[in-house]
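User:
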Amino acid sequence: MNKLKINTLGKYIQLCRLDNPIGIWLALLPCIASLIQASDGIPNLNRLFIFSLGAIMLRSIGCTINDIFDRNFDCNVERTKNRPIANSTISVINAIYFLILQCIFCIPLIFFINKNCLLLSILLIPLIIFYPLCKRITYWPQLILGICFNFGILMAWIDTRNNLSLSAIFMWLGSIFWQIGYDTIYAYSDIKDDLKIGIKSTAILFKESGKKYISIFYILTIIMWTINGILLSYNRLYFLGILIISIHFIWQVFSFNINLTFNDDKYKNIKIFRSNLLIGVIVTIVSYLGLF
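Assistant: Predicted structure:
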């Protein structure tokens, strides 16, 4: 019985991707960087905890919603066929109950953010719901995901300062372009399956020109984050970090192979995607070091 409960718990952990935390880090680190920037290097520990928990919960909720909507697609995609709803180890009704429980768990968080931040967070809800549906109607689901994933940047700033500065907007835009770039790399893993089942993505849109467009989005990321640093009057350490990020982006583009699928890219293209954790770490660190 205990083994059965552990296995069941494991399936729900898998459903909300807590067993694969790279997505949590990619959402959380830019948010922490924004908290550091908005607080002049010393973020409130309570606020740091609330936004970290919020990033984990919102990402988990997004994954649950995504898997409910995509269950009939996921079972036909090599990378996603073993997801709990797709392989029927979690029923749709139980997934909905779990989603309601996740939302209830998030309710107390609203009492720890200010009114303007709360209003901003309300705008995020329809975007989270719309993301899995937009893959059916647009080749730009990575854009919608980038907006959702990085909303914490704006929320962190407005909760800390009760206003929204131009520097925060540039940080947000840069993070969106960054996400479109790295998530396009990720999307190439599924391109053959997605074409068969009718799912749209930037990978399908860009086709053989993937490296060129990923390069453009990474260049836009560097420009946006550089402007962010200029507006915040950051020192050379920040811009040194941006230079290191630029070099890493160059490595990603040259190493990326658009012709590899999930079966043969898990040790290359997926590794390149996961290497963006380093980008998040660097931008967070230099957001602090750039102040001094």
